[in-house]
Write a structure and sequence with these properties.
Elements (H helix, E strand, L loop, with lengths): L1 H17 L3 H19 L6 H17 L2 H20 L4
């Protein structure tokens, strides 16, 4: 399951590198750090936490263009796939 979050993290690292805006780059890096915690740590994100991260990424996608937008979109898809695989109360 965490392979989806790892893929999202990898995509976001590439997106941060290609981002033209410091604001976009900062938002991407904050989200990348959160996914690193999920992948490497003991924190398992729930639906609400993932929704918050997805909302941030959707806002970033609107501000991004080119390769950055493509990588953010790919990360969103990976997180959505992961989200569908976890149990919701």
């Amino acid at each position: 399951m965490t392979e989806h979050l790892q893929q999202a993290r990898d995509d976001l690292e590439e997106a941060a590198t290609s981002a033209d805006s410091d604001d976009v780059r900062e938002k991407i890096r904050e989200t990348t750090d959160a996914f690193a915690d999920y992948v490497l740590g003991d924190t398992t994100p729930d639906h609400a936490l993932l929704d918050e991260r997805l909302n941030t990424l959707r806002q970033v996608r609107k501000q991004a263009d080119g390769d950055t937008e493509t990588k953010v979109d790919s990360a969103i898809e990976a997180v959505e796939e992961y989200r569908e695989s976890i149990y919701q109360d």
